[in-house]
Amino acid sequence: xxxxxxxxxxxxxxxxxxxxxxxxxxxxxxxxxxxxxxxxxxxxxxxxxxxxxxxxxxxxxxxxxxxxxxxxxxxxxxxxxxxxxxxxxxxxxxxxxxxxxxxxxxxxxxxxxxxxxxxxxxxxxxxxxxxxxxxxxxxxxxxxxxxxxxxxxxxxxxxxxxxxxxxxxxxxxxxxxxxxxxxxxxxxxxxxxxxxxxxxxxxxxxxxxxxxxxxxxxxxxxxxxxxxxxxxxxxxxxxxxxxxxxxxxxxxxxxxxxxxxxxxxxxxxxxxxxxxxxxxxxxxxxxxxxxxxxxxxxxxxxxxxxxxxxxxxxxxxxxxxxxxxxxxxxxxxxxxxxxxxxxxxxxxxxxxxxxxxxxxxxxxxxxxxxxxxxxxxxxxxxxxxxxxxxxxxxxxxxxxxxxxxxxxxxxxxxxxxxxxxxxxxxxxxxxxxxxxxxxxxxxxxxxxxxxxxxxxxxxxxxxxxxxxxxxxxxxxxxxxxxxxxxxxxxxxxxxxxxxxxxxxxxxxxxxxxxxxxxxxxxxxxxxxxxxxxxxxxxxxxxxxxxxxxxxxxxxxxxxxxxxxxxxxxxxxxxxxxxxxxxxxxxxxxxxxxxxxxx
Length: 598
Ligand code: GLU
What we know:
Number of helices: 20
Number of strands: 20
Helix content: 25-40%
Radius of gyration: 23 Å
Low-confidence stretches: 1-27, 403-412
Structural class: alpha+beta
Bound molecules: glutamic acid
Distance between the termini: 37 Å
């Protein structure tokens, strides 16, 4: 493992001597970070997350000389403590990294995988899909977690800290406790019945049978111990050792409370599945948009291809001059078209042939854009297109042989972004799927297991469905961590939570910022709508206008909690200044910070 790329040799010495990095055992007055500021401008590095403790952890790492990758792992590990119902070592995610040294973008696919005993019909009974809610709270839906392996891989490839050092801030927060806010309490309330049905989850998140009060201090000593042991023993303890054995036992025999009447299906994970887990280094998706280059996450996530296809369609319209109604009309229509193609063609590329290059080609986008009528919303669902290399690019019903074959351009749940003083950038989305994941805490280990395998389709939804379960397969994700470059240098880094609305949130933020002249904080705050090729458009009430309704869009409010996407981003301003922006209101608001404010 490489550990030596610190800028200052003296600092490296101090680090080796353990004199600079705080450890969980260092005796210092307890400061809990609760102040939320959604926007910060400054220099020297920046962090934006949904949580002030996590943002503080990332900034602290940057101030002590760590880089953007070190800060991202430290912030993510802290989110595993303070945002445990969204993310943690029981889950998975996708990390996009811009390396300033050679201006290259890299990605890591740390998606959960199905165990070897998974079958195409695992979520069926008598030929019919099982009840979704039964799958949600079950051992059956737990995928082999990828988050810890992602952290280790990112640190090995690009970081300067050891895993122990990167886990230290999270470990400290777990041990000393953090202040419960309304979101944390509400997420337990929303999950109370199922959390109460597992002995381990009940004792951690419903202490003495009660939901922690807003303003109280919540401690997770079991997770602090887990982080300490992971720091000492490394990821092998999780993937090949005793912790792994406990995970397997928990998945196969969830610790259901005696007397519970909930039907809890057992999982099929074995120790060999954990041993076989690998993070995959992937080539990012890459498309050109209005002189910028947009990098995203390739399949197994559908984020990069779907955001990319929609942008390719949209760049055929001069959105900035059309006015908001037409711009948003085209955004909704392009999103529906891209979702139709996502649903038909995108799955784990190790299992299905994903026509990624064709989906991201300008020829295909040109043909797909013919389906947009400026005067009328199309009837949804729209059919998928044919990414076959033969495209009608002039909307005259004829294949245009000049452009057939696609373009030759390069190919390629909580969200956090970090940037360091060297110019490196991380855009990282991680999740345990549903808020609260499977609802099952690994006894004594302090973290929840994901229910990511519910992202598979339980039965075919389209012919040759690319997203059916299979042994070792990764369920299709919508996570869309994105980095946008201008002339080879970072311009924006952005991402969002929100299941399949992640794609539309990232797309809308990009259109708002790049085409419609909103600032990044305005784009993140903007009222949102999500058209995922369905008859109705989920929209926050402030998005809805008479003009859009007159074009034939039918709006419905998003499901509880009535909001779409608490995004986070960084914009790289002139003269080395950074604008870190987190969500101002949704999910109680996020936290943005910079290393130096001026
Ligand atoms: N499981 C979702 C995905 O991978 C993310 C979970 C969420 O954001 O709610 O797309």
